[in-house]
Specification:
3-methyladenine DNA glycosylase; Endonuclease III, domain 1; alpha+beta; DNA_glycosylase
Amino acid sequence: MSERTREWAPGHSLDIRATVGHLRRGSGDPAFVYGRDGSVWRAVHTPDGPGTLAVGFDGTTVTGRAWGAGAAWLLDQMPDFLGAQDDPSALTPRDHVVERLVRQSDGLRMGRTDRVWEALVPAILEQKVVGTEAWRAWRYLLRRYGERAPGPVPDTMRVPPPQPTWAQIPSWEWHRSGIEPVRMRTIRGATSMDVERHPDRLRLLRGVGRWTEAETRARAVGDTDVVNVGDYHIPSLVGQALIGEPVDDDGMLELLEPYAGQRQRIIRMIELHGPRPQRRGPRMTVRDYRDF
């Protein structure tokens, strides 16, 4: 299969892993792999079809290599994927804590994938469960219904299925993946909307609330302001970083209010570099609906 290439000089500091690492759904994600040379490999179902993009950075120039029907689209979109449209200077620190986070996060850009469906499905899978449970289902469904990623990739790398395919997955396969009927119905129902054209209407979908919308928009359209209300960990992380103690959703929104327009950026910086609060309560358990 032929390889296409593109070089792009961002003209600013760029930490590729910090910028796109939140797209990986666990260490065994079939659609996202870290290369031994520091490159990032991602399989995508583009508007032109399946494709694989490999991105490397030498400190000056980004080199992208792509394969498959979607290769040209992936290379055209690569700068936006790496945050070319982002403006970190839009965040004005108001205290020494955020100033430190900004310094530590040099190279972080709020990129966008421009693939809403591929951000929405795993966000729904992660609703109200631990990541391990959701990532197990993501691996199963991609290996079962995703096609092999094009290019010189591991045999286990898969392109996420296109939106119509998800509506055709039979109920027993959802059960085998470990997903209960509620999340299955949410994903099936979401196939009725052209989410690529309407990323601002996700909450019209049954079962999609503020948390799922935030998780999706932060990745797909590079929304710098959405807040992950309802997350099991993020309010505590934000509170611990900004005032030294955990807070709830309301407390998080109050702390982030001075940074309206840049609240998701603050959250990303805290996830990368903020302190971790001491665990005092019970951890969420990993459920397995395959045994039910």
